[in-house]
Amino acid sequence: MLYLSTRGQAAPRDFEGVLLAGLAEDGGLFLPATWPVLSPAEWRALRGLPYPELAARLMQPFIGEALTPATLLGLTEAAYAGFGSPAVAPLVQLDHRSFILELFHGPTLAFKDMAMQLLGRLFDQVLARRGERITIVGATSGDTGSAAIEACRDRDAIDIVILHPEGRTSEVQRRQMTTVLAGNVANLAVRGSFDDCQDLVKAMFNDAPFRQEMRLAAVNSINWARIAAQIPYYAYAALSLGAPDRPVAFSVPTGNFGNVLAAWAVREMGLPVERLIVGSNRNDILARFLAANDMSVKGVEPSLSPSMDIQVSSNFERLLFELLGRDAAATAETMRRFRAEGRMPVPEAAWRRATELFRGVALDDEATLAEIRHLWDRAGYLADPHTAIGTAAARAAAPRDPAIPVVVAATAHPAKFPDAVARATGQRPPLPPRLADLPAREERFSVLPAELDAVEDFVRAHTRRNRG
Ligand SMILES: Cc1ncc(COP(=O)(O)O)c(C=O)c1O
Ligand SMILES: N[C@@H](CCOP(=O)(O)O)C(=O)O
């Protein structure tokens, strides 16, 4: 399997090259040169497989010869062995047509573990064979950071620096990152928004000498391996509900557009996905785009669903590339104008194609609290604010045909956002026993302004300290 950059100027490469590169050198994102498509009979044959086996089978075409099937299966089995549910990603029925796909049973209680537990092992495998070290730089609005740190802590060949927006995550999210005192881990609170953190990470990748000197790698969903590892759970849900012989819809609380892009990918691979519903908070750029082709950046505003306090959704570029007929020059020019003007000029025909499949629904904080309360009162289900945005969006934009089930991606455990959940329901969800002492653990992090030089110096110092 070869991968192409959405901006067309970086050399195509195989999975291992993409895993280690993260962002393409031309600033674009990698996508498979062709999508692996399974026939209905091949899909049916995957029904009922244990999750680790399904994940290995679906990821093998993306990984190609980088790993043998037996090695990949060993990695997926190890990645999901520690999850708190034997199903790994259990599907819970909410009403006659709505289902919740719980993606938060991993070590850091958010859907990021589904990919990150595998990514850490993939990095280890590849780096050991090559005898190389990397420095991971990542941006987080709260969940990617802790999942990446958990997956990479104490690994010999990896140093990791995670940037989070100062004061804009929940306390549980921050402590899950900053209380990991492993020598290879560093946390940076940036005075700015998640978008500033993400810009800084991309700027480090675009600084070629720095990128080479540090041997930078990515754990954000700019790294194709992250998306590849998120595809299996959508297939798992769809197959459980009767696909490929029955269409399904997904509702995905969305920020950086990586999770919903993985749902879109299973459609490219041949499963009948009827609709993709994108849930947003008051940072509603994606909902505005889908309603009126208005992809214009406003300032990031804090909300009760902080992991989605994002305006510039990295992975939208991958969809844009497809909507523009895989025209890399047009994609590069559209992204250049978006950056320069703060507004993305998506051609009318491409926008219409997007609206055939996608719907956008935005909820403010009051509506989010009302939905958490509604789920608790009506179904006895305690949802975190991100998941609640997904369930409300699902009701608002479900396909007209009631025979089509709608699966909501439950992206975080309610205990990560106890204040919002308690405000809505009076219930304060406890952390699992292994995290019960989190509020008392020692924290370690540095604070810096959103300035590239300062952040690069910090990353350099951290890496040099560990490389000796
Ligand atoms: C809990 C939670 N829900 C939803 C999202 C949005 O997912 P994505 O950025 O893949 O769109 C995130 C962050 O990525 C998250 O942490
Ligand atoms: N919500 C995310 C933001 C980063 O998204 P990613 O999928 O690109 O890593 C977070 O929790 O950090």
Note the overall shape. Answer: globular
| Major sheet | 6 strands, mixed
User: What is the CATH architecture assignment of the domain at 91-108 and 225-425?
Assistant: 3-Layer(aba) Sandwich
CATH fold group of the domain at 91-108 and 225-425: Rossmann fold
* Distance N to C terminus: 37 Å
Radius of gyration: 20 Å
Percentage of residues in strands:
5-15%
How many strand units? 13
Calculate the mean pLDDT score and round it. 97
Instruction: Give the proportion of residues in helices.
Output: 40-55%
The structural class is alpha/beta
CATH class of the domain at 91-108 and 225-425: Alpha Beta
The total count of helices amounts to: 19
Can you list the strand order of the major beta sheet?
A: 3-4-12-9-10-11
Q: Any ligands, ions or cofactors bound here, and which?
A: pyridoxal-5'-phosphate, the ligand N[C@@H](CCOP(=O)(O)O)C(=O)O
- State the low-pLDDT regions, or none: none
Q: Which terms summarize this structure?
A:
alpha/beta, binds the ligand N[C@@H](CCOP(=O)(O)O)C(=O)O, binds pyridoxal-5'-phosphate, 468 residues, 13 strands, Rossmann fold, six-stranded mixed beta sheet
Overview of the structural elements:
With 468 residues, this protein is α/β, with parallel strands linked by helices. The protein has a domain at 91-108 and 225-425: Rossmann fold, CATH 3.40.50. 46% of the residues lie in helices and 14% in strands. It has helices at 15-21, 40-44, 51-63, 69-81, 112-130, 143-152, 171-178, 194-206, 208-214, 224-240, 258-268, 285-292, 316-323, 328-341, 348-357, 365-379, 385-397, 418-425, 452-467; strands at residues 3-5, 30-32, 91-93, 98-102, 134-139, 158-165, 185-191, 216-217, 248-253, 273-280, 358-362, 406-410, 446-449. The protein has a six-stranded mixed sheet, sandwiched between helices. It has a five-stranded parallel sheet with strand order 8-5-6-7-13, with helices on both faces. Strand 6, helix 7 (171-178) and strand 7 (185-191) form a beta-alpha-beta unit. Helix 10 packs across helix 11 (258-268). The longest helix has 19 residues, at 112-130. The radius of gyration is 20 Å and the shape is globular. It starts with a strand and ends with a helix. It binds pyridoxal-5'-phosphate and the ligand N[C@@H](CCOP(=O)(O)O)C(=O)O. Residues 99-338 form the Tryptophan synthase beta chain-like PALP domain. GO terms for molecular function: pyridoxal phosphate binding; threonine synthase activity. The modification N6-(pyridoxal phosphate)lysine is found at residue 112.
